[in-house]
Amino acid sequence: MSEIQLLPKVREYLQRDHAHFIDGQYRSGTSDKRIAVVNPANGESIAHVTGATSHEVDEACQSSHRAFKGEWAQTSPYQRSMIINRLADLIEANGEELAQLESLCSGKHIQLSRLFEVGQSAMFLRYYAGWATKINGETMTPSFPSMAGEHYTAMTRREPLGVVAGIIPWNFSVMIAIWKLGAALATGCTLILKPSEFTPITLLRIAELAVEAGVPAGVVNVINGTGEVGAQLIEHPQVAKVSFTGSVPTGLKVGQSAMAANLTRVTLELGGKNAAALLPDADIGNAVAGLIQTGYVHQGQVCASPERIYVHRSQLDEVLAKFATAVKGMSIGSQLDESVQFGPLANKPQFDKVSQFLADARSHNQIICGGNPLKGPGYFVEPTVLLANDSKDRFLHEETFGPILCVVPYDEVEELPALMNDSPFGLTASVWTNDLSKALRLIPEIEAGTVYVNMHTFLDPSVPFGGIKASGTGREFGSAFIEDYTELKSVIIRY
User: Fold this and answer.
1) 28 phi and psi angles, rounded to 5 deg
2) Percent of residues, the chain, with pLDDT higher than 90
């Protein structure tokens, strides 16, 4: 195993006194709540961060509110666009530093951090920057009767909501934060980011770069801590919107708390138990390769990844054999080793959860290949393929959020919509076929926020993303985000 050498500035950054970024400044924490940041490849602590007090949460909210009413309100859409683009430039310029920090904290392969946490983040920011000057209303002609020759006209305005609280998960802590940051800044909102306690430090560096890019003090704040800090943020009277990405149980609590607090706007991007259907005419080799790539990216810790794989019964043995061959050939090791294909799970609770799933599958004799936690330091498990026992199998209904693909045989294509929709979730789905007509007929019947054809998982900033059913509410990206970050104001004029 040959790991990359950490940059000197990464080593120096890890030694800093990490806590918060409030009102344009890196802040030391005032509480005694110290949270260890752990490298999941070996279980060793690499840094510490101090959790926020209620006073620090309030300070961040007040800072964001002042900026929203003050300097940021006076910043033109064009200026906002230029600032967002400069931040994208700085993320790329400091890309290796950010990628190394994020891989160390999250267990994400270094190449994936370079591609997504850096490259995709910069691309998404540039997309949002383009929208800053294109947020428009409409004009209408009312039908009021004229009593004395008067006339009427009407228009709508899109106005920023105010302070946005962005609550970030641990799986893609930079990229998902950037989605929320870009949307908030493009629409004229200000933002407080609350990272996961497992991946808390990279966003503090992003906040420093934001100030360097010209973001005024208070427009982007970062506060750290556990769930109680997020709860205080959600309930704060200065917060106008909450954008949460994470698990379904936590998302339900977030939504309920936000509504109970002040009818606070909320966007929830939650989990998935995403289905992929291989039609009998599909190219099996390409489909298996595509599902290996997208199902095991970041060790399967991706909400949009496929977990349920529906295969025609006549092709079941061939598909399972191809999966087994591909999975057995995957190399496992440190996320900082460029030669490996599969790294550790992101944290100890996730490792314990996935290990319990694997033990259950082993006890029910479902494992086709993989299925074992690895001995030694770190949070490693084997990439795994299972065969479902029946339609009630827990692996068809419970999100594992790990490297577990569950294969399910079917008999007729007409069965697929009912099988794929038999889930409380509705985030993504995919159809693998060479018959476009069949794909287009299936798409309207599949209950999912995104349906892919001959691909899965990939996201583009121009295409709205979000779920239905228990997978959430609201949309990110495209032009759809504008509605969730702005208030529609109507104006009627008599003249």
Assistant:
1) -75, 150
2) 98
